[in-house]
């Protein structure tokens, strides 16, 4: 199967609506691909906290409408990155959307691990609590977002739910590019999955984005990696490699579950 990661540039030079139009056009250009992926919070800006309330939308709002149509026109599965979702009760969430080839919404994941400590997501958004996988015609796709990369428990939950390929939209800061490179490779190798991590480019709210979107195979080998600026990264994946590698090196069978720390004395 063929996958493309659209490393979209996100900055203050255009409105969210202009960026929707640009992103949808780039998705339509990927006709013939099986899966297309966009970055995290590319409409509102992942670091533009003061604009989140203004740009928040429902899962059937303007971003979903535009990207659903683009997925249908491209005939591809589309991971539309994530949006600032406003729930019916007013709570904001960082929510990933996955559309099928007909433009139907097939998966929604609310980011579980919220970045910011005492600022940003940690204080302005609610956290999800569901591990989400979606069956597709090329394999089972697991969903995670950016900061989730730092928490291996989620990824073990995704493979327990059948994930063979994990998609991670991100707005990872360039200052921690080394961490991005290390963690994306580690999660693919650790879970023996294909990992597609699509990071934003550009600068917004003073935070320079890392770019360097990457496709990693279940052996931890980098199949393709982008540079720092906007580009579309494309790679061909042989999904049978997941089964082959898990059979050749069956480390997942040796997991010991239920390990707990001893009680403090």
Automatic annotation (TrEMBL):
Pfam families: CN_hydrolase (PF00795). One of its GO terms (molecular function) is acyltransferase activity. InterPro entries: C-N_Hydrolase, C-N_Hydrolase_sf, UPF0012_CS. Gene3D superfamilies: Carbon-nitrogen hydrolase. It comes from the Bacteria. Keywords: Acyltransferase, Hydrolase, Transferase. Residues 1-239 form the CN hydrolase domain. PANTHER family: DEAMINATED GLUTATHIONE AMIDASE, NITRILASE-RELATED. Belongs to the carbon-nitrogen hydrolase superfamily. NIT1/NIT2 family. This is Acyltransferase. It comes from Streptomyces antibioticus.
């Amino acid at each position: 199967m063929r996958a493309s990661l659209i490393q979209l540039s996100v900055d203050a030079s255009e409105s969210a609506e202009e960026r929707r139009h640009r992103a949808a056009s780039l998705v339509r250009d990927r006709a013939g691909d099986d899966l297309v992926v966009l970055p995290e919070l590319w409409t509102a800006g992942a670091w533009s906290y003061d604009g989140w309330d203004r740009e928040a939308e429902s899962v059937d709002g303007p971003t979903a409408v535009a990207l659903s149509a683009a997925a249908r026109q491209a005939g591809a599965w589309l991971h539309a990155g994530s949006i600032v979702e406003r729930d019916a009760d007013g709570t904001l969430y960082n929510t990933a959307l996955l559309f099928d080839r007909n433009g139907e919404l097939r998966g929604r994941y609310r980011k579980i691990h919220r970045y910011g400590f005492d600022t940003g997501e940690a204080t302005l958004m609610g956290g999800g609590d569901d591990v989400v996988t979606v069956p597709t015609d090329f394999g089972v796709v697991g969903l995670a977002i950016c900061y989730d990369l730092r928490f291996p428990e989620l990824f073990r939950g995704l493979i327990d739910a059948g994930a063979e390929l994990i998609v991670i939209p991100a707005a990872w800061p360039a200052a921690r590019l080394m961490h991005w490179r290390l963690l994306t490779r580690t999660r693919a190798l650790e879970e023996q999955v294909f990992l597609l991590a699509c990071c934003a480019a550009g600068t917004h709210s003073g935070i320079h984005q890392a770019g360097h979107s990457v496709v990693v195979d279940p052996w931890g080998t980098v199949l393709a990696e982008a540079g720092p600026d906007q580009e579309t990264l494309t790679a061909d994946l042989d999904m049978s490699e997941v089964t082959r590698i898990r059979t050749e090196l069956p480390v997942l069978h040796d997991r010991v579950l239920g390990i707990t720390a001893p009680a403090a004395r």
